[in-house]
# Entry
Amino acid sequence: MKKVFLLLCISMFLSVKGQEFYYGINSKIPIDTTDMVLVVNANYNVDSFVAKHNATIVSSDNLFTTVKYSGKKVYGGNVFPVYKTKGGGLLRFTDDILFYPQKPELLDSIKESFPIEILSENEYYVRARVINSTYNALHVANRIYESGWVTYSHPSFIVEIEFDI
# Structure
């Protein structure tokens, strides 16, 4: 089991650069990177991040602040990448993942094989958090799906909804 975990960790670290994606209903859905990051207000000093990285605040609410900056990508802990859909919508996520095991007994294998902790379970999904800031939720969720042990696996996306009334 340790060899399997090591191999999974190495494959996550060496993931292919270029087109990013997430899995949706048995297909890869392409997404593009942006120069924006998502900062979690509750756990991180946004003003410090803005000053240190010469960033500009794009939007903010009670939970998240989206900032734009240039320079070296800073992810992990409380700072997460933002992606764009084909239609130009922004997909943001933190370190939470939603997945559904094909069989209940596979949950133990998933917990042992990936850097996650289980936060909650119900009849529709298991919610987990990535516990190693070396990996982001998108890559871990993709590797969990690729294991074949789950029906679906994806980050818990945060998407702004615009109403056209």
Summary: The beta strands are 20-24, 27-40, 56-60, 64-68, 79-84, 90-101, 116-121, 126-130, 150-158. DSSP finds four helices and nine strands in the chain. Helices lie at 2-13, 46-53, 106-113, 137-146.
